[in-house]
Structures are given as C-alpha cells and as structure tokens.
Amino acid sequence: MESVSEPRRQVGALPFRRMPDGSFSIFLITSRESRRWVIPKGWPMKGRKPYEAAAREAYEEAGLVGRIGKRPLGFYFYDKRLKSRDSVLCQVKVFPLEVRKQLKAWPEKGQREGQWFSPADAAEAVAEAGLSGIIRAACKREAGTAG
C-alpha cells in the first residue's frame, strides 16, 4: 500500500476574455487522455516563476497569449493518471490569463480541442469541484471590479 504523500504541485492558467457587454468567456481545453474539459496546466518549470510557467502551458497547450496575473486565484486538487496507470494527487495553483490572441500554430495543436464557454458553462463542464469553484469565484470577483 502506498503511503499518503504530499500532493505533486502543478501550475495552471485560467484563460479568460472580457466581452463587449462586460461579461466574461472562459477558454477550456480537452485533456489528451480522457478528453474531459480542463484548463492548460503542467509541472513547474525550472528557472520560471509559477505564473510564467502557467502562461507557458497556455501557449503550448492552447496557443493562447495574453497577460498572466502574478497572484493565484486559488488552487484545486485532482488525480492525474500516469502512463504507468498509477495516479498521483496533484495540487494545481491557478493564475488568471487575460487572453489577447490565439496563435495559428502552437506546440500541441491538433492534440486537444479548445472552446470558449460562458463562466457558468465552464464551471459545469470541468469535472473538478475545486476548479469549478475557482471559475465561479473569479468571474464574480472580476465582474465586481468592472466598470
């Protein structure tokens, strides 16, 4: 039996854009294995601050470029399935990414699907309750500061 170890740390970006009416859209991508809706995320990168690594993941996995926030919105946990079929508990620190543009080509293009969602639909689409809560809270907070 495995001992309960500390969760592995990951960083993720919550890609969003402000719509002309002041509302928000959230960009989600599919995971490569299970094809469920997730945010761009990955392991911390040596020599990069956590928010820089999160922005890099958004570029690699979805071709998204924008302004990354330096303060995390929060974090959530999920079980990551490894190639060995084992799974590890991961804690993902989520940083807001205000998307300026999506590139025509990026490293993982064709390996995943991506789609813009309303915040409510994005919160429903993701499987992880913690991530769903971060999406809902972030959009409420942003909406409160708009105008």
From TrEMBL:
GO cellular component: cytoplasm
Names of required cofactors: Mg(2+)
InterPro entries: DDP-like_NUDIX, NUDIX_hydrolase-like_dom_sf, NUDIX_hydrolase_dom
Keyword Ribonucleoprotein attributed: no
Matches recorded under SUPFAM superfamilies: Nudix
Pfam families from the UniProt entry: NUDIX
Residue span, Nudix hydrolase domain: 6-139
Protein name: Nudix hydrolase domain-containing protein
Organism: Methylobacterium gnaphalii
